[in-house]
Amino acid sequence: MATLSGLCALLGLGRWARLAVLAPATAGFVLLVRPDPSVVRSAGMCAVVLLGTALGRSARAVPALAASVVVLLVADPWLARAFGFVLSVAATAGIVLLAGPLARRLSAWLPRHLALVLAVPVAAQAACGPVLVLLAPAVSLWSVPANLVADPALAPATVLGVLATLLAPVWPGGAHMLAWVAGCATWWIARVAIVAAGLPGASVPWTGGPVGAVLLAVATAAAGAALWNWRRLADAAGVRVPWAPGARPSLAGWSWAVRGTLRACLQRPDRPAAPPEPAPPARASPRRSSSSLP
Fold it and tell me: Cα separation of 148 and 131, whole Å?
């Protein structure tokens, strides 16, 4: 849908022309991949966004998700027992609610764009973790890295696969080439999953059932609180923070913090403390509005 919306914008299509393209595309995609619970959730959210567009209102992710979930559960209450539907809702809610704040916190250590790239799978994993424990009493330590590595192949696999399907009746040769490229993308996703599943820590035992889900939710909330107050925790532990609030991370800052922390840890008690090394000048990062985050 994002690809089609971008093409419509490039062609300069108006609101109703976009709706005439996007609405049939949504219905056709559901018919193509079959209406599994996660697909139904995605299509319901797209339908709410399209309805808002038809009414001339801006698209908002949280109201669209909430409205689609309520309508779908009223239409089919048994969706609440489908793990695919619950995981899809949890992952989407985690991304739209947590990815922005997480990106702002992670930008203390990483460049802004890398912080946002990392925040998306972390937010999804934090929201889905308690549900996944209900499926299998184990926690994977490689879920977020695996998602980061596999994510670039998602868009080519989806878009090229759909294009190959549409092109096959008209030009089988061209469809075969597109399907081959899409197959390379799906092969990459599968290989990442297989390799990650074979790494140490891919399945750490955890308490199962509702108790395990609650414990993991509490542990996740505690980790989030630690991330939120990382500067206070660093000061309490005697770890030097390599840059001031609002400053951009730099290699010089990291080097200064590591040297200062090691010097404090290795200082003998009977020796007077060495004078602290002056911190390198911090480069202030330009302020950005939080509304630019998704």
Answer: 21
Note whether 211 and 218 are within 8 A (CB): no
Who's near 217: CB < 8 A, 6+ residues apart?
A: 129, 130
| Residue range 186-224, pLDDT digits in tens | 999 999 999 999 999 889 999 989 999 999 999 999 988
d(CA 40, CA 30): 7
Place of tokens 């209450």: 77
Find tokens 């092969």 and name the residue.
187
Cβ(66)–Cβ(96) under 8 Å?
no
| Residue 209 falls in which region: left (phi positive, over 0), alpha (psi -120 to 50) or beta | left
Q: What is the pLDDT of residues 138-159, one digit of tens each?
A: 999 999 999 999 999 999 999 9
- For the entire predicted model, the pTM comes to 0.76
Cα separation, 281 vs 283, whole angstroms: 7
pLDDT tops 90 at residue 175: yes
Q: Is the dihedral of CA 156, 159, 160, 162 positive or negative?
A: positive
Would you say the C-alpha torsion 263, 268, 271, 273 has a positive or negative sign?
positive
